[in-house]
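Whether sequence alone determines local backbone shape is best considered at the level of individual chains. The sequence in question and its structure tokens are set out directly beneath this paragraph.

***
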Amino acid sequence: MPSRTEQLSVFPAFMRVQGRIAAVFGNGDEAFAKTRLLMNTQARIVAYADAPEPDYARFLADNDITTVRLAFAPEQVKGAVLVFAATGDPAADREIAAAARAEKIPANAVDQPDHCDFFTPALVNRAPVAVAIGTEGAGPVLAQVIRAQIDQMLAPSLGKLAALATSYRNAVEHVVPRGVARRLFWRRFFTGAVANAVGAGDLSQARLSADALLHSPEKVDGHVWLVGAGPGAEDLLTLRAQRVMMEADALVYDALVPQEIVDMGRRDAERFSVGKRKGCHSKSQEEINDLLVELGRAGKRVVRLKSGDPLVYGRAGEEMAALRNAGVSYEIVPGITSAFAAAADFQLPLTLRGVASSLIFTTGHDLTGDVLPDWASLAISGATIAVYMGRTVAASVAARLMEAGLPAETTVAVIENASRRERRLLHGTLKDLPDLEFRDELTGPVMVIIGEAVAGANFDHSEPLVRKVTVAQELARS
């Protein structure tokens, strides 16, 4: 769910106004602008203008708009579905809005947000397609800038394509099965030969292509995307990940994937939370494999959403093997792994010319045996080490690396919740690292980065790893 600061104070909606009265009060530019906006609709516009300025009067006459040349009276609002108070006189506009509200008619008082029941959007019109941009009255100029950008993105023929789709809706409902097959039909309709023909102005060819598409539906097979959700920030999700999430019939996601990212998937997609977080596994890996195979065999298009990158400590290998053995097609959508996000938050060079030319990813659990892993020798020669899930193994990582010969003063960077708003940054040296195990307030995923290159990080916004130790903590350590 969005936070309170991210919630709208208005509910965006499209109101039916065809053949119904929309009343505009005023004589000048403000009323002229509202009337022009209403001309995008099939509303019955009534202009209340006792002395319209010449340009506005000419516009009203040229477009055969009903004009009432009388001063305002409260009964004039009756029968309208929308009222625009646009006289240019704030007090008069408030009076008009109050009269409308007394009749339970929504009113808009120009440039007075506190007296508006609704706001008029900046509009991109490709009827029957419309894009309305609102700023809750805070920034009309910003809305116009956005409108101009969107206007350039949308083909002028989009409205004709949408109208053609409307004419095929009943046939599609009778011929093409619901679910994946129907979505696939419409995707091909809006992006293939039909759309190309409409864009070229050849509606006859567009209908021929639509008929061919309707009577030769594509066979629908299940498919699984193993998608990297990135380190947690929504805007670090890749464009490809966003696209496939909007195509998916089902989302299978881990506990470390923030709800804000899960919510970016298609609204009506099935959602399966499978846990996969230290201490709270809700499904075993075998159960997850079986679920992916089951959904794929059912013809579903599935997004398996994993924190970071699916190929880095994501157990993607086991899921790919299960899908291959079951004959279910799949593909990988890479994501930004946490080590890169942590380095970015610290402005930390993971490789540095003349200092560190190698980068090691590890969980640190292979340091607990009697024999040091091969990568430990690389660390001694200057490689940068990124330790995933590093809080609980911090002490053993520090001890074994120092035992192998890595200097105790080697710089260490620690980050909880890399890339997210609630991230926390700490810094220190290798000998300080065991203190991390006593940081019980660090409940999010923790990344530890160790190496000479880490000394080049920006520590302005981080806190020291070592803090004052209480007597109880000192006793617990001993």
